[in-house]
Design a protein that fits this description.
This protein is an alpha/beta fold. The chain is 46% helix and 14% strand. The protein has two domains: 74 residues, no CATH class; 161 residues, Ribonuclease H-like superfamily/Ribonuclease H (Nucleotidyltransferase, domain 5). The chain has a five-stranded mixed sheet with strand order 3-2-1-4-5, with helices on both faces.
Length: 269
């Protein structure tokens, strides 16, 4: 002990006084906060950084600065999982004048004003499955989805019909997507017309116009699918249901003032 105290330049009496001293109030608070942060971090599947953790703590009545949250997360070895997901973009040069971009004409200021849709792909065994989804642009809530082995209008129509069964919006709803054949094909377009839904499409060379849908697929793959393998469709479907329940009801969205889509809709109502 004498050698250790000499190494750090402290008196032996000072060392023993430090050992016997009662834990400070701030250290006690740090221990309580760290346990709460670990619970939130695990609940987010390791995807929450300090801003979302701080907001979740505040919702629990635990006011704390972001800097302190960052320090405690760093000390506990908690670092938000960041995954870069690349999505192949097909060159779409065809111009469909009958499907203009209607997002320039109206803003989503309430639910069921603008819905957006997109399709991505997920590997199951040696083959791909195509996942279509429909989201309310106002609240970022995923309303419907469908999984299939082929990328056709049947896939996108099934996702849209799933959303319609849950929401039943009035006529005049705008549905926005990219210009893929699975959205501009007769089977899908006629379905929208029969319901009084106005179709909107992204202009060529401007993929950011469907950024809400793209952002959801990025979150899905980074939060849940990255690193997982699926041997059958049943496994993938169960995983998707679990994630969508979390995404709609629990995941804090910075664009919604750190609220979940369902909480954002409830507050708006």
């Amino acid at each position: 002990m004498k050698r250790l105290c000499g190494l750090y330049g402290v008196a032996r009496a000072g060392y023993y006084a430090w050992r016997c001293r009662e834990e400070s109030a701030r250290h006690k608070q740090d221990r309580v906060l760290t346990r709460a942060i670990q619970e939130i971090f695990r609940g987010s599947r390791g995807t929450y950084g300090s801003p979302r953790v701080q907001r979740e703590l505040a919702s629990r009545g635990m006011g704390v600065s972001r800097r302190r949250v960052e320090r405690l997360m760093r000390a506990a070895g908690m670092r938000a999982r960041m995954v870069v997901i690349y999505r192949a973009q097909r060159a779409m040069n065809l111009h469909y004048s009958q499907h203009p971009n209607r997002l320039w004409q109206v803003a989503a200021r309430r639910p069921d004003r603008i819905w957006v849709g997109d399709v991505t792909y997920v590997r199951v065994g040696p083959r791909w499955r195509f996942l279509a989804m429909v989201m309310d642009q106002y609240s970022r809530r995923v309303l419907g989805w469908s999984l299939a082995r082929t990328r056709t209008t049947a896939l996108t129509r099934a996702a849209f019909d799933h959303a319609m069964r849950h929401r039943r919006p009035g006529r005049g709803l705008i549905f926005h997507s990219d210009r893929g054949n699975e959205y501009l094909g007769a089977g899908f377009h006629e379905r929208l017309e029969s319901l009084g839904v106005r179709q909107s499409t992204t202009r060529g060379g401007t993929p950011a116009e469907n950024a809400h849908a793209e952002s959801f697929f990025h979150s899905l793959k980074a939060d849940m699918l990255h690193g997982l393998t699926f041997t059958n469709d049943g496994q993938l479907r169960r995983c998707l249901r679990t994630y969508l329940q979390y995404y709609n009801y629990k995941r804090l969205h910075s664009s919604l003032d750190y609220r979940s889509p369902v909480a954002f809709e409830q507050q708006a109502a």
